[in-house]
Amino acid sequence: MISSLKTYKTVTPDQVKVWFNAAPVSKFPKNGGACIKYKDKQIAVFNFTREGRWYACQNLCPHKMEMVLSRGMIGEENMEPKVACPLHKNTFSLENGKHLNGGLEAIATYPVKVEGDIVYVGFSE
Amino acid sequence: MKTIIVVGNGMVGYKFCEKLVSREAGKQFKLLVFGEEPRAAYDRVHLSEFFENQDAKALELAPMAWYTQNNIELIVNERVTDIHRSKKSITTASDKEFFYDHLVLATGSAPFVPPINGIEKEGVFVYRTIEDLEAMLSYAEKIKQTNKQGKAAILGGGLLGLEAGKAVMDMGLEPHVVEYAPKLMPRQLDSRSSNVLKLTLESTGMHIHLGKATNKILGNGSITGLDFGEDDTLNVEMLVISAGIRPRDELGKTCNLKMGVRGGIVVDDKMQTSDPNIYAIGEVALYNQMIYGLVAPGYEMAEVAVNQILQKEVLMQKNIDMSTKLKLIGVDVASFGTPYMPADKGLSIIYENKTKGVYKRINVSHDGKTLLGGIMVGDAEDYSILHQMYLNHIPLPENAEELIVGARGDGGSPFGSAMDLPDEAVICSCEGVTKGAVCCSVLEDGNETVKAVAKATKATSGCGGCKPMVADLVKESLKTLGKTVKERICEHFDFSRQELFDIVKLRDINDYYELLDEVGTGHGCEVCKPAVAAIFASIHNETANRQETIQDTNDRFLANIQRNGTYSVVPRVAGGEITPKQLIAIGNIAQKYDLYTKITGGQRIDMFGAKLHELPLIWEELIKEGFETGQAYGKSLRTVKSCVGSTWCRYGMDESVSFAVAIENRYKGIRSPHKFKGGVSGCIRECAEARGKDFGFIAVEGGWNVYVGGNGGASPKHAELLAEKVDKATAIKYVDRFIMYYIKTAKPLQRTAPWLEKLEGGITYLQNVVINDSLGIADELDQEMQALVDSYKCEWKEAVETPEIRERYTHFVNSDETDGNIEFVALREQKMPREWA
User: Fold this and answer.
1) Do B146 and B82 fall into the same domain?
2) Is residue B212 part of a domain?
3) pLDDT tens column, B351-375
4) What is the pLDDT of residues B462-516, one digit of tens each?
5) Contact: A32, B815; criterion CB under 8 Å
6) Whether residues B166 and B236 fall in one domain
7) Total domains, chain B
8) Cβ–Cβ under 8 Å, residues B385 and B418
9) Are B168 and B154 in contact (CB under 8 A)?
10) CB neighbour list of residue B681: distance below 8 Å, 6 or more residues apart
11) Residue B621 included in any domain
C-alpha cells in the first residue's frame, strides 16, 4: 500500500508535459471536488467557484491510504486553500500539499487550467 | 569555555538542558549530554499512551534538531561508566574520556526487581522505557497467537503498576494486578478510597489481587504462573514488574560520593553532592533522606542546579509537595498534602458514593481553619483549587464539608474564584508557573488564549492537570481587560452557534455563501460549513441535497463512509418493528449487492460495503419495497429504541412499541447540533435502555415518566427526570420543546448530555422552560417543531428521482470504472475491508 504513495509526485507548472483533458467544468460541483482518472492515477480536482480557482491533488489520503480526498470538504485557513479528508478530518494545503493539522507527509499537488468549458490537469508524464 | 557534562537524558536531564540554554549566562558553557537509551529524552509520565498510537515521536520532549540548534552535544546509546574526580573527567563504555568543569548526574532510577525465585524466566518484563514496551508488545502478540484469552500479571499495585495494567489491557491481554499491601496505591490512598478505586477498575475488566506475596514464578523456561504459597496460584503467560524504583547511583559509588544507606546520592539544598563540582538531580538524588519519584520535584532540582552553576543563590525548598492527580483508565485519582493521618493530627471529612464510584476525603486541622491534605477518587474536578488552598494556607469556609459535597442551596461555589489566590501561588507545579505569571502573560504580554499562555509560560505542558485552572485565569484576566472570551465556531464566523442560528432565522438566509458574505470572513472551512448546514436544516428543514458541498461527507452522499471509502446503508425501522416481508426484502437486496449485514445497536439493519455508484441503485430498490432513509449518517434523529411492551410482555404497563413508532416518525429527518436518540420502555425494568438516550419515556402506573439528556458514548450518562406520570400528549409536548430548545442553543457537535450539564440551573431550569414556560417561548418552540414535523420528506427518494443528484454518485467523473483501491477479505461467511496498512 505504501508503495502506492510513490505513484504521486507534485508537478509544478513548469514541469508539465501533458495537459490532460479531464472533464467539462459542469462535471465538478461548485465549491467542491470530484475525482478523475489519469493512467493509473486517481486525482482529486477542486472547483473553488467562489474564488474562481481550481486545484488538484492526489485522491489518496496518506493517513490510511484510502482514495477519498475528492469527497472532502474544501475551505481555507489563513487564506490558504485546503481540503479536509472525509475519514478523519486531516487537512492538507492545496497550494503545497502540506499536512496542516499534523505531521503526515505532504500530498502531491498538480496544476489545473480551464480553457473554454474544459478542465485540464497537468502531468509530467 | 567551561564544560558541563550531564549524565542521563531522561525528563529531568532534559529539563536541566532546557533551563540552562534559556538563560543568557547559560550560553557561556559547552554542554555535553550522555544518554544510554537509543533516543533523545521522552515523556515517561505518559508512557502508556505509546500503546494507543505506537508513536515514539509523540512522546518526544524535543526533536534531535533542538539539541543542535541550542549547541548541545547529545550522545545517545553511550553509557558513562566511571568518574575520575581528581582529574575531573568521565569515561564511557567505549572507553572514551571527556573532561568537565561541572558534572550533573541525572541518571534517574531503574525498576526494582525483587529477588523472587524464577524471575529470570522468559515473559517477565519491567515497565520503564519504550524498549521495554516494545518487548512486551511483541511478546503479547506471540501469546495471542496461541491463546486469544491470554493473561498477564502486574506485580505492584502502585501508580505505575496500574498504568502498566492499562497498557497490558490495551495489548489485548487480561490484566491481573498483584499487590503485597492490602490496598491499591498504598502511598497515596487510604483503604476506603483504595476500595472505591478497586471496584471501578474491576468494572473495566481489570483483576485485582491484594495482600498477596509472590513466592515463586512458575514455568519451564517461560512463565506460566505465579505461586503465592499454600496452593494459591494464578496462571498467567506474562509478568510485568512494577514494584518500585531504585536510584541508578552506581556512578556515585564508584567514585566514593556520599551515599544513602539504602541507595541514592546524597545532595544538599544546592543539589550538590559531597563533591562540590558534582550535582545530582531527579530520582538519583537523595534529598532530606528521600528519593522523589515525581516529575515536579525533579524539575525543581534541575532549576536549582542551573542556578547554582550560574552562581545564583536559589535553594531547594524544605518541604516538597508530593501531590498528584492523574487519570487511571478514565478514573480520576488525586491525593495532596497529607492524604491520610491519625485523628490526633487532624480531622477528616469523608464523602463516599459507591454507586457512582466517588470517594473524597479532606483532612482539616483541629481548629477547622486549615486544609492539611486529602484524597479524591472518581471525581477530581476540584483538585486544583483544593490543592491551591492547601499550598497557600487559604482559610477554610465555615462549613468545610461544602468543599467536597458542594454548597447547599443555589448560587456560589464554596471556593470563590481562582483569581482570589495570591500571585505567588504555584498553579503549574510541573513547570513552577505561578498565578502571577499566568495573569501577567495575559495582561501584559497580550496572550489571550490558553494555548498562547501555555506557549509563553510553559504552564500546562507537563502533566496538564492545571489546565482548567489556567483556562479560568485566562478568562478572568481577560474580563478585567474588558474582553470576554468569545465563543466562535471558527475563524470565518465571529459568532457562537446560537448567535448564528438567530442571524439565519432573523435575516431568513438559506445560502451558505450569502451568510458568509453578510456576517463572515474568508471562504469557510470544514468546521463552519456543516455547522451552518445543520442550522439551515433545523430552520428550513431542507434536505442535505440542495447545498451538498457544505455537508459533511456522510450527509453529502446520504450514507456513512466506512474504513475503505465504501458506504453503509441503513433504512429506517421505526421503533425496531419490522415485518417478515421487509426482512426478506432487505436480505435480497443485501445479497444482490454483496453487502455485509449487521444488526445495529438502534434495532435496525446496517448494510456495509456499498460502493459510491451503487448507493442510488440500492436505494431505488429499498424505496420500491416501502423503506425510507434512516438518517444513520446525519446529525439528526437516529432511532427510538423500544422494548416489546404490553402488547406481548406480561409485565408491560403500556404499549411501548406503538409509542416508539409514533415518536420516531414524528422526529425523523430533523437535523440538530449532534445526533440524538430516543427510547421507550413499557415498564421500569427498562429493557429499551431509555435512560441512556437523549430522550426517553418509561411507562409507570398512571402515565409516562419523561427523561432527557442521557447518552452512551465516551462518557455515559443517565438521562434526568423531566416530568413524572404524564399522559402521552403532554410527554410529547415536553420533549418537542426540549429538542427544539436544544437545537437552538447548543454548540456544534454538542449532544444533549453535555448541553444539559452546561445549562446554568440544569434540569430545574429546563423544567421551568419547557413545563412552566418561564422564558415565554413555549408557543414558539411548539410551532417550530410542528413545522419541522410537517415538512419531512425522504431525502433518498428525492435523490433517486432527481437526475442531477443521482449523477453525483460516481467515483470518477471521467470514467465509468470503480475505485480499484477497494479490497475486501472474507469474514465469517461475509466480508470486510482489508486491514489498514
Assistant:
1) no
2) yes
3) 888 888 889 999 988 888 888 999 9
4) 666 677 788 888 888 887 777 766 677 888 998 888 889 888 988 889 899 999 9
5) no
6) yes
7) 5
8) yes
9) yes
10) B642, B643, B656, B687, B688, B689, B690, B696, B697, B698, B699
11) no
**Parallel, antiparallel, or unpaired: how do β-strands B151-155 and B278-280 relate?**
unpaired
In terms of domains, do B511 and B479 share one?
no
Spatial distance between the Cα atoms of B206 and B352, rounded to a whole number of angstroms:
22
**Is there a contact between A86 and B561 if contact means CB atoms under 8 Å apart?**
yes
Model pLDDT for residues B10-33, shown as the tens digit of each residue = 999 999 999 999 888 888 899 999
Q: What is the average pLDDT value for chain B, to the nearest integer?
A: 88
Residue type, B486: K
On chain A, the residues whose CB falls within 8 A of the CB of B522 are: 76, 79
Q: How far is B634 from chain A (nearest CA, A)?
A: 14
Domains of chain A, each with CATH number or no CATH: 2-123 (2.102.10.10)
What is the distance between the alpha carbons of residues B137 and B238, in angstroms, rounded to a whole number? Answer: 11
**Strand B637-642 and strand B676-681: pairing?**
parallel
Verify that B527 and B667 share a domain, yes or no: no
Which domain covers residue B273, as residue numbers? Answer: 2-110+247-309
Identify residue B45 by its one-letter amino acid code.
V
Name, in order, each residue with C-beta under 8 angstroms of B138's C-beta and a sequence gap of 6 or more.
Answer: none
Q: Look at B553 and A72 and tell me if their CB atoms are within 8 Å.
A: yes
Contacts (Cβ under 8 Å, ≥6 apart) of B133: B47, B50, B51, B127, B167
For residue A66, the chain B residue with the least C-alpha distance is: B564
Do B733 and B664 share a structural domain? yes
What is the CATH classification number for the domain harbouring B45? 3.50.50.60
DSSP, collapsed to helix, strand or coil, labels residue B517 as helix
Contacts of A44 in chain B (CB under 8 A): none
Q: B650 and B720: one domain?
A: yes
Residues B88 and B131 in one domain: no
| ipTM of the complex model | 0.91
**In a domain? residue B378:** no
Residue B385 lies in a domain: no
Q: What is the pLDDT of residues A27-78, one digit of tens each?
A: 999 999 999 999 889 999 999 998 899 999 999 999 888 899 999 999 998 8
